[in-house]
Amino acid sequence: xxxxxSDASARLGRDFIQDxxxxxxxxxxxxxxxxxxxFHGERVWLVxxxxxxxxLLLDRRLSKSQPSIAxxxxxxxxxxxxxxxxxxxxxxxxxxxxRLRRLVSATGAFSATAVAQWRSKIAWIADELLDGIARxxxxxxxxxxxxxxxxxxxRVIGELLGVPARQRNExxxxxxxxxxxxxxxxxxxxxxxxxxxxxxxxxxxxxxxxRDLLSALVAVSSRKDHLSHDELLxxxxxxxxxxxxxxxxxxxxxxxxxVQHPDQLRMLRDDPALIPTAVEEFLRYESPVNTATLRLxxxxxxxxxxxxxxxxxxxxxxxxxNRDDRQFSAPDALNITRDARRxxxxxxxxxxxxxxxxxxxxxxxxxxxxxxxxxxxxxxxDTPLRYRDSIMMRGLxxxxxxxxxxxxxxxxxx
Length: 414
Ligand code: HEM
What we know:
Helix content: 40-55%
Oligomer: single chain
Radius of gyration: 21 Å
Distance between the termini: 72 Å
Bound molecules: protoporphyrin IX containing FE
């Protein structure tokens, strides 16, 4: 079947990026799955209800294999999909997926116990960033995305993997276009630079291993038949990009949600023990990853009353599932006391986010430290909110706020 089609009912364009929820509300009301068009006009099947989203995330009849999905696009349109760095566990099926995932899991780096040991380091990094932010805040509004939400995860994953501090910004400059760039030459440059950076870093770890995740993975790759050089590059790229590009949205969207709901912000200040449930609610209410990665039907399937033929693209809208009123009462309301843990923000099934324990701890600490540092956080009314140009990621371009503590206020009103 031709993937380019005009029968699609909706196009996921700029309006959708600013506000996906109105479309999701309409679509959920009329059925669990709908044909829509994306990017260059390809038709995909968008899944918007919770129960079907969960079943399809578990469904082995959907493939995530990078070569099969890339083959659905012309070479000019396939963009990052054809690059070897994307040939990683997120874009693979069993048995490769199982083998690759097991290799990282075996290092234990992302277990809840290992992550708990990072708490004090993460808090230290947050506090250091907040020191700088407090100084900047005396001169006017501060953008909490660039100074805090983006900076914290970059430093944390850098520490965990063992990326030297001086290389972190270089990585960041090239990771962002890999995830969001549409321009082919920008993508090619980012890919070449990243491959060179990763190759050099891996050579350094091979020569001089230390107690970090990258050294552990390099050690695994030295054992024959475990992990090829290309697989190692792709794995490290995945960990860096997942670490850089997602948690920023949890922190940014979470802070925005609180600032826009002063009653919830007050409740959290009055009872900081609510932080873990608040973070689950941020993940549900404004999910950092809007849609899961593309999947491909390997056979004819039926979703609700809709027949989807073999070799069709399926896009599971995690944010839509997380606002399905069949699953969550008053789903469009932020309620930091609800039990939101069954949200699908980290996916579900075999590809369930490996970094979820780390992301949760980062989110908790980022919000808790910010609130304990500043008594007043208000949006800078002069700057309209803008979301990054991506269907998959739900994140703010910037979040300008005014910050002050009681101390500062009393000094200035005296
Ligand atoms: C709030 C932050 C995060 C969110 C919302 C998030 C969300 C997700 C989602 C939805 C998936 C599955 C995608 C799919 O099935 O198509 C996923 C997979 C993955 N995530 Fe995360 N993630 C976050 C942070 C992290 C961090 C910090 C890391 C580690 C550095 C990480 C590593 C991974 C990896 C390795 C996979 C692939 C797992 C697999 O294919 O088996 N994530 N993430």
